[in-house]
Amino acid sequence: MNILAISGSPRPARNTASLMKLVIECAKTYASEVNTMWCNLNDMTYSGCQSCLACKDPAAKSCVRKDSLAFVLDVMLASQAWVIGTPVYMGHVSGQLKLLLDRMYGFTGPNGEKRLPAGKKVVVAITQEADEECHTDLGEQIASWLSRWGLETRIIRACSMPVAAPAPEFSQAVKEQADVLGKWLVTP
Predict the structure, then answer these.
(1) Residues contacting 71, CB < 8 A, separation 6+
(2) Model confidence over 5-54: pLDDT tens digits?
(3) How is the chain classified by DSSP, letter by letter?
(4) What is the CATH number of the domain that holds 72?
(5) Domain total for the chain?
(6) Angle of helix 15-30 versus helix 172-186 axis, rounded to 10
């Protein structure tokens, strides 16, 4: 199984990446062959959707812009599962991830058809410094948006995460949820 890990965090080894890695490591305990490709959006040079509508050409598979994100979009098409991570910034996903989400518009064909193969699973890992009472609807918004392409989506949130801690510490509840989601990700 090929899993694409897409981190929307500007901090490559902190809370968001650690939560994503936890889910992926749990998935590896349930499947013998898990190949993971890691993508840090913050390390790439790309722009958001330019509304050029070239992606609506019947021959296009996704966004046609040729920047660093073009390869990621191709791998998104080829991977069986994705783990997407984002910290909560100003009540929403990071700017890095928002640009990718906008470029995913190209996964919709000229007549509204879905260009993503059926059966893809996505875990969205959300981290935030605020407690669980804040931003409770963000995961639901992302899951609803991704479901438009027929993606099976699950959300994991780690709240009250200190920004400056030396290493993230996840609660037992988050660890148990990561295990459940890791198993779900690799189960046909």
Answers:
(1) none
(2) 999 999 888 899 999 999 999 999 999 899 999 999 999 999 999 999 99
(3) -EEEEEE--SSTTSHHHHHHHHHHHHHHHH-S--EEEEEEGGGS---------GGGSTT-SS----SHHHHHHHHHHH-SEEEEEEE-BTTB--HHHHHHHHHGGGGB-TTS-B-SPTT-EEEEEEE-SS-TTSSTTHHHHHHHHHHTTT-EEEEEEE-S--TT-SS----HHHHHHHHHHHHHHH--
(4) 3.40.50.360
(5) 1
(6) 50
Tens of pLDDT, residues 47-106: 999 999 999 999 999 999 999 999 999 999 999 999 999 999 888 899 999 999 999 999
pLDDT at residue number 158: 87
Neighbours of 91 (CB within 10 A): 11
Query: Which of the two residues, 148 and 179, has the higher pLDDT score?
Result: 179
Which residues constitute the domain of residue 16? 2-186
Q: 188: which residues sit within 8 A by CB, 6+ positions away?
A: none
Contacting residues for 96 by C-beta, under 8 A, at least 6 apart? 8, 9, 10, 41, 42
Report pTM.
Answer: 0.92
**Residue with the two structure tokens 């509840």:** 173
C-alpha neighbours within 13 Å on the C-beta side of residue 154 = 18
| Residue 164 pLDDT | 65
